[in-house]
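Private note to self, pasted from the team thread so I don't lose it. Backbone tokens:
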């Protein structure tokens, strides 16, 4: 069962990645995605193992971004891949049948290439976001609605999302939203995560 709030870590944020993940877990996030484009595999494996132990005690999933080998080495709960991160079918074979596998979708036409074995999609960016400067053109809420309606698997909205967007995201048929700075750069990341969870429940 996937929960509505999915927090993606940000190495450049004012809180350490461990603090970000810990806060997300305490605030009620469903999952924490470990995303670091610059760390070595060895450093990420060490960090991921630390996070996995702590997140598991909270019932929160640890998902690795891009790094197949790291996800396998640390026995992560899941792996998230982008459109240029390799063949999803081959990656599914490598990680086995039980690890969660997510795929980024940046445009409606990419839905035609969502193979069996994908568990959820991250659709976006809904709006432009500074945390990923090389993102695709924003799809807006209209694009999100089309993708969420047509997707064969649950859809998470991503890209500039915050507590003020929860009702609009829920109205598209998405199962939740993935956030970065709304939690990682919040003065109180635990409270920020909890506010997102509460907003979803009442939307």
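Design output:
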């Amino acid at each position: 069962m996937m929960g509505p709030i999915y927090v993606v870590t940000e190495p450049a944020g004012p809180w350490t990645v461990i603090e970000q993940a810990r806060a997300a877990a305490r605030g009620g996030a469903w999952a924490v995605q470990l995303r670091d484009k610059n760390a070595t595999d060895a450093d990420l494996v060490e960090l991921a193992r630390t996070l996995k132990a702590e997140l598991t005690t909270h019932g929160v999933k640890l998902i690795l971004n891009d790094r197949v080998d790291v996800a396998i080495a640390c026995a992560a709960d899941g792996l998230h891949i982008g459109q240029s991160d390799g063949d999803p079918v081959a990656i599914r074979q490598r990680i086995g049948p039980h690890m969660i596998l997510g795929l980024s979708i940046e445009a409606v036409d990419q839905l035609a290439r969502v193979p069996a074995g994908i568990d959820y999609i991250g659709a976006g960016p809904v709006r432009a976001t500074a945390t990923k400067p090389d993102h695709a053109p924003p799809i807006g809420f209209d694009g999100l609605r089309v993708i969420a309606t047509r997707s064969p698997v649950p859809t998470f909205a991503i890209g500039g999302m915050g507590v003020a967007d929860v009702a609009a995201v829920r109205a598209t048929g998405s199962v939740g939203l993935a956030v970065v700075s709304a939690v990682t750069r919040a003065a109180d990341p635990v409270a920020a995560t909890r506010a997102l969870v509460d907003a979803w429940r009442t939307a």
